[in-house]
Every structure is written in C-alpha cells, then in structure tokens.
Write a structure and sequence with these properties.
Chain A: It is a peripheral membrane protein. The complex is a heterodimer of chains A (259) and B (285). Chain A has 259 residues and is α/β, with parallel strands linked by helices. Chain A contains 9 helices and 12 strands. Chain A is 36% helix and 27% strand. In chain A, helix 4 (129-142) crosses helix 5 and helix 5 packs parallel to helix 6. In chain B, a hairpin with a 2-residue loop joins strand 1 (138-139) and strand 2. The radius of gyration of chain B is 27 Å and the shape is flat. Mean pLDDT of chain B is 89; it is low at 1-10. The chains are: A alpha/beta (259), B mainly alpha (285). The A-B interface holds A 57, 59, 88-89, 92-93, 95-96, 98, 100, 102, 104, 106-112, 119-120, 123-125, 152-155, 168-169, 172 and B 178, 180-181, 183-192, 194, 198-199, 202-203, 277, 279-282.
Chain lengths: 259, 285
C-alpha cells in the first residue's frame, strides 16, 4: 500500500503513536484523506482526536509512525531507516501549506481583523502587502465580514471571530485545512454561521479534516466519518454507514449519547 | 431633572405616561462630605505651615534651583537613569528568555542570577564594586582602579541590580500572554523572531509597562545612592553646596522639587505608553 506516491492522496497517516508522559493518547492511528474530500472525526473527549489533528501540522511531535501531506513527510526527513526532525524553518514552511483553525480562534487581539489575515502572507510568504490586503478583503467578503476589516477581534462575536480565523487560515492558500472543534467555544445560535462557511469551503472542493461534535454537520458535509475512541480509530466510512448503521458497540454508545 | 438622569443611567427612555410608578431617589452619603471637608482642612493647614515657615528658605531654593552645579547633577541623574534602565532591561529580557527556555542550564543560570542580585543590597553591591581593586588589582595589565572610575562602578552596580528585577517583570509579561497566541503564530508559519516581535512582545507589554514604570521612577530616585561613592548626581550636587553653606533644608528642597518634577513627567509619559499598548482592548485601566 504505497499511498505516499498516489497523487490522489492528500493526507497519509501511518501507525502514529503519541504519549504525554505516562498517558498514551494515540495508539497507532492509520488514516488516509483523499484530495478534495472532507473527513470528519468524531469521538468522546480524550479519545485523541484533537491530538491527531495537531500532529498533522506538527504542532505535536509524534513518537512513532509517519504523516505525509501532499507527498511531503511532515516534520521529518527520511535518512536511511531513520526519521530526522526537520529544523524549525522547514517545519514552518510546511505549515504555511496547511491551514489550522483552533477551537478558541486564537486571533491576535492587538491586531485588526485585516492585520490578522495579512500577517502570515506578508511575513511568512513574503507577499507584497498590497496583494495581501486585496486577498484579505476578498476572503472577508467570502466569510461575510467585508465591513469589519478595521475592527479588533474583541469587538466581534465569537462566530465572527471564528470566521475571521478561517479567513486567516485561507490567506495562505493552503492545500489542506484542519479544524479543531471550530464551533465548541460558540454560543448555540452562532454555530450555524461558522458551519455554513466550512460547508461552503467543502462544496468548493477544499480538502479538510474537521474534528467536531456536530453530527448533523458530519452527515451533511463529510465524505468520510471517522470515529475515534481511546487513541484508536474504531471505525470509518461514509456518514450513512457510520452514523446510521455503526458496526461497533462503542460507536453506537457514543452516538446514542450525542444524537 | 430627576427623570432625565434616570433615563440616562437606565438607558431606557422613561415613558411619560407611567407616572403611577414611585420615583427613584438615590441614597445620600453625608459621611463622605464630612470626610472630604476634614481632609481638605488638614491639607490647607499643612500647606500653610510649609509656605509660611521661613526655615524652608524658599529664597535660597530659588537661587540654587537652576544653578549650574545643580543642573549638572540633574543631568547626570537623568542619563544614569536612562542608561541603567536600558541596559538593565536588555539584560533582564535576556535573563527572562533564559529562564523560559527549554535548556535547564540556561534556566538555572538565570534563576541563580536573579537570586544573587536580589539578595545583595544595592548599597553593599556598589561598595563591593568600588573596592573591586582589592580582589582583582589588575585586569589585562591595566590597574582596575584606573579602569573602573566611580561613574562606571555606578553604571555596572545599578545595571546588574536592575536586571535582576527587570528579568522578573519581563518574565511575568511573557507568561501573561496566552499560550495559544504562540501556537496560532506557529501554525501560520511565522518565524521565531517574528512571533516574538509581532505577537508576544506587544501583548506582554501591557503587563510589563506598569511595573516597568514603577521601576523607572524607583531607579530615578534610587540613583541618589551613588552619592556614597562620590558620583556627582543631583543629590550629591546639593550636598556639596550645603556642606559649604550649611543651608541643608533648602538645598534638600531643591533636590526634592527636581525629583518630583521629573517623576511627574515620567508618569505622564507612562500614561501614553500604556495607551499605545492597550490597542484592541476596551479596558485601558
């Protein structure tokens, strides 16, 4: 199964293990995400789904296994039978091709909405400022916030902040978008506006992995639903299968609690 | 009138037709008025005693306030403060970075430095540096006494002392910045220096500025300690005069007024610096 050379594969995760001290969080995860597909990861708290997502752009180092995105080994280079960790500069370069959206937005509070979005294109990709500003304004329009370019994050609602965070991730024109529980910090009435934006991106063919508790969103948008529990992938498949006809007892137990 | 203020404070327009409801009357505070009056009377008495007491010799104060020797002393105090603050915070920032690094040796060195230099009184430190020639008579073939004049000793002693405190202030500022900010910057591919300069430091400054302002004012006045090693700062300059003329109190008033004036200016400056770093926050106090 030499999926690494397959041009159709965007993300290839193989036998990934990760421990935090004595806590074994990921216990051998294998996952393939095809280009243009949306993968939604479900699972109870502490199942390792956020940690898995964070290993994909090397915010967490893995203890074993390997991850490649669009053919690039993430965080390491192979030399013989070893994986040597890349210097930070290389890792940062890889990250500019992978967008990451955090649960708590993590917008920069001292920068305006526009500055939040242009910061990375200008300083990490060395884009001319004028070009970055044009792109940022286009992206703000796309997430429905064209009129808030000059606002500071604290002047926006949670849903608006998360949409800015999505625009900020898109500004790097990533090949892959990672969402870490993008609606979990939002008031219930604001969840819809953020899911709408993510759904639009999905329909336009953006490759993404979304960790979430929103099973409705999974049913509507996902190509593949992955259910994780206790550091392992318990089952995966099309949303109709995993959500409606789960084969595993643990999946059934989880779905009966959240649905 | 009452309905006006009520409407403003409640932000809900009072509909004129609801006159059947009882009117709201704020609670009165007669105690506050009495206390304020008592304090004002005491202040007036104190001010009167200062201005009408001839022993202050305000005429002498006026004569010396802008004399050359006093202004030279003031100038030394000002630049010594500026140099000590700049060098102290530069070294302190380095120490804070050491303390927060992943390298246990750097962490230990930083901790040890802060422990040592906060433990030794600044007066003792200055006297030790002043007598360093007794420990190391020669450095690279030059007599230590020639190398380290009183002013150099003052700069070194005060800077090393300042850096220990600055390190803690800067460290506190960096720790006050949410860890997620760095993570977001890393996820966006921002380099180490850019993360520090553009993301962490501006946010840390909000926590750093108030105690740093405290330190600046403390250092301005604290430099007066260098008079013990005969450096001619503001205090030493007025002492030189009153040793000659015996007009001790008026000369100390000259120093007091200058220290107060400069401190006030620094306080105003701090207000604007804080305002600058409050960007993006509604709460500025």
């Amino acid at each position: 199964m030499s999926t690494g050379s397959d041009t159709d594969v965007m993300v290839d995760i193989r036998d990934v293990h990760k421990s935090f001290g004595p806590l074994h969080v990921l216990k051998g995860v294998d996952l393939t995400v095809r280009t243009g597909e949306v993968t939604v990861v479900l699972g109870p708290s502490g199942s390792g789904k956020s940690t898995l997502l964070r290993t994909v752009n090397h915010l967490e180092k893995v203890d074993r296994g390997l991850i490649s995105v669009d053919g690039d080994l993430i965080g390491y280079r192979r030399s013989g039978d070893r994986l040597r960790e890349l210097p930070e500069r290389e890792v940062l370069r890889q990250r500019t091709r992978i967008g990451f959206v955090f649960q708590d937005f993590h917008l920069f509070p001292h920068l305006t909405v526009l500055e939040n979005i242009t910061e990375a294109p200008v300083s990490a990709l060395k884009r001319p400022r004028r070009e970055a500003v044009d792109t940022a304004r286009r992206l703000l329009e796309r997430v429905g916030l064209a009129d808030r370019a000059g606002a500071f994050p604290r002047q926006l609602s949670g849903g608006q902040q998360q949409r800015v965070a999505i625009a900020r991730a898109l500004a790097l024109e990533p090949r892959l978008l990672l969402f870490d529980e993008p609606t979990s910090a939002l008031d219930p009435e604001l969840v819809g506006e953020v899911l709408d934006v993510i759904g639009d991106l999905a329909r336009q063919g953006t490759t993404m992995i979304v960790v979430t508790h929103e099973t409705g969103f999974a049913r509507e948008v996902a190509d593949t639903v992955v259910f994780m529990d206790d550091g392992r992938i318990v089952e995966q498949g099309p949303p109709g299968d995993v959500l409606d006809r789960p084969r595993h007892e643990r999946t059934r137990a989880f779905l009966s609690r959240v649905l | 009138m009452t309905s006006d203020t009520l409407a403003k404070s409640a932000a809900v327009p009072q509909s004129p037709d609801r006159t059947d409801l009882p009117r709201i009357v704020p609670h009165r505070h007669p105690g506050q008025w009495t206390a304020a009056a008592a304090v004002l009377v005491l202040l007036a008495l104190a001010l009167n005693s200062v201005l009408r007491n001839d022993a202050f010799q305000w005429g002498v104060v006026a004569d010396w306030f802008t004399s050359d020797s006093v202004l030279r002393g003031l100038w030394l105090t000002l630049w010594l403060t500026a140099v000590v603050m700049a060098l102290g915070f530069a070294l302190g920032t380095l120490l804070a970075a050491f303390r927060l690094s992943a390298n246990p040796v750097l962490r230990a060195v930083s901790w040890g430095y802060v422990w040592l230099f906060r433990s030794i009184p600044i007066l003792v430190q200055l006297l030790l540096w002043f007598n360093i020639g007794a420990l190391y008579p020669q450095v690279l073939g030059v007599r230590t006494v020639d190398l380290l004049g009183p002013v150099t000793v003052a700069v070194i002693g005060l800077t090393l002392h300042e850096a220990a405190y600055a390190a803690e202030v800067v460290r506190g500022g960096i720790l006050s910045v949410d860890r997620g900010q760095v993570e977001a910057a890393q996820a966006l591919g921002l380099g180490r220096w850019r993360r520090w300069r553009r993301i962490v430091l501006p946010q840390a400054m909000r926590t750093i500025v108030p105690p740093a302002g405290n330190m600046l004012i403390g250092t301005l006045k604290g430099t007066s300690i260098v008079s013990v090693i005969a450096v001619q700062d503001l205090l030493y300059s007025v002492q030189l005069v009153h040793h000659r003329t015996y007009q001790v109190v008026p000369m100390l008033m000259v120093a007091t007024l200058w220290y107060t004036a400069v401190t006030s200016l620094l306080g105003i400056g701090q207000y604007y610096v804080e305002k600058h770093y409050a960007r993006g926050t509604e709460r500025t106090r």
